[in-house]
What does this fold into?
Amino acid sequence: MARYYRADLERNQPISTEITAYAVGGLLYLYRQTCDQRYLDQALAAARFLTGHAWDQSAQVMPFEIAPSEFTYFFDCGIVIRGLLAAWRASHVEEFLAVATALGKSMTQDFVATEQGGYHPILSLPDKRPLPRDPLRWSRSSECYQLKAAMAWWDLSEATGDSSFHLFYDQALAHFLPTWSDFLPGHPEEAKVMDRLHAFLYFLEGLLPRAGDPQVEAALCSGIRYAAGNLHQVNSVFKRSDVYAQLLRIRLYAFWAGVEDLDLPAALSEATMLEKFQMNSDDPRIDGAFNFAFQGDALSPYINPVSTAFSLQALDLWRIYQEGGKQPDLDLLV
It folds into this structure.
């Protein structure tokens, strides 16, 4: 799956392993909700690309992009694991579990930053040397958002029965939990604050496996309000669809977990705004997809697979809530 499609240029960006994994999760969510075999077939085809083409068995590496394979990201590896485990649960193809497990182990060995603490965000390939961190670029930092990637260890423990993976998740939780209140706004430019909101909401998602813990519950409740407050301060200039989708999703999951009462006016507002990002077009590459962002009053030229996966799931979760349904399993969270 390409990182995104440039509608103005009619051109896809390079293939991304992370984005492909998100597509696996999104397609499997659609399959679970519709029983349409096409979604399952395409999800498994994407998962086979990750295990059969992208995965470097000899180096035990999942690269960021395939051509060229210059870097590997801690965050992306976690998302790939979660996508492969979703494919394994749907198909029982052992290759998906095997590669996910091997990748999870490589994360515990290659990315741990002993002196700096936490995890190296990016390693160069093939030498696996950490790149310098940049505090103004969230993807080049090791901050609280990395907890979403650490969810992969929790999922691996559930899938394999290996309790050491739970331990790695809990270590990541202990490392990141005290740090979240300093993450926002984090940048002098409003558009960059919106980007950091996207990352911060990853952190809130990463808390969900331990939602019953009092410290985690407090962080979830405070974090949702913190994210919403920052969103309202910066959304006049730049609005990202994935941010609205993530905020709506975390509100609903926190409500279903018994952690936070649902702010109905806020949830309705976010769902209403989210619908405005969906595209109608005669071009099948665009039709039905969710645009990446509004820049002022104009939609961007970026058609984003992740925005689409997050948005369709958020709106479906909102439908389930309105119909009085139960929370879908946490492992379905894209």
User: Anything to note?
Assistant: The first strand starts at residue 5 and ends at 6.
